[in-house]
Amino acid sequence: MRLLKILAVVLLAGVALFVLLNLWLDSIENQKAYYATAADAERDKIAGVDAFDRGWLPVVLKFGVSEIREEHNVSTNQGRATFRYTPVFADTLERSCSPLPPDAPVSSPFRRWPGFLLKGDTAGKLRSRNVRVFKCGDFTFAINDEQSGFFWH
Fold it and tell me: Among residues 79, 72, 124, 125, which one has the least CA distance to residue 102?
């Protein structure tokens, strides 16, 4: 009976250690950042390289955006962000990126994110809900009429 209790304690300690280790590893792999402005993102240098040059933020975000909330996984190289934008950004996006055709499917690699994106959505369906979708290299952008933007890659 005593041996059984010892085994149970060791097993519980092992499970707790496993859970804590996974939480710690997840926090290392999933990096988050907040930038009040694009200029703040440019000042965020790691080894002399800013957030744009590291590849987590697309260059098109340098113009007319604020409140950038970005997160990415360093292992999978997937990332996403929300931001606020001005008409200057919308104009830059339209000039620098390609709008998705109305029948193009739109999906995100992140489960239930962004919240407005439904299974089976196309660019045309999103446009009918006042969301425009663009492709900029590896990044997909979605902007709405309330000047909120999203991107993922």
Answer: 124
Only one residue has tokens 């240098």, namely: 45
Q: What is the tens place of the pLDDT at every residue in 58-73?
A: 999 999 999 999 999 9
Q: Which residues contact 114 (CB under 8 A, 6 or more apart)?
A: 82, 108, 142, 150
How far is Cα 107 from Cα 140, in angstroms, rounded to an integer?
Answer: 9
Closest CA to 104 of 123, 91, 120, 117: 123
Query: Is pLDDT above 80 for 127?
Result: yes
Fill in the amino acid letter for 100. L
Average pLDDT over the chain reads: 86
One-letter amino acid of 133? V
CA–CA separation, 151 and 57 (whole Å)? 9
The whole-number pLDDT of residue 73 equals 94
Q: Could you count the other beta carbons within 10 Å of the beta carbon of residue 150?
A: 21
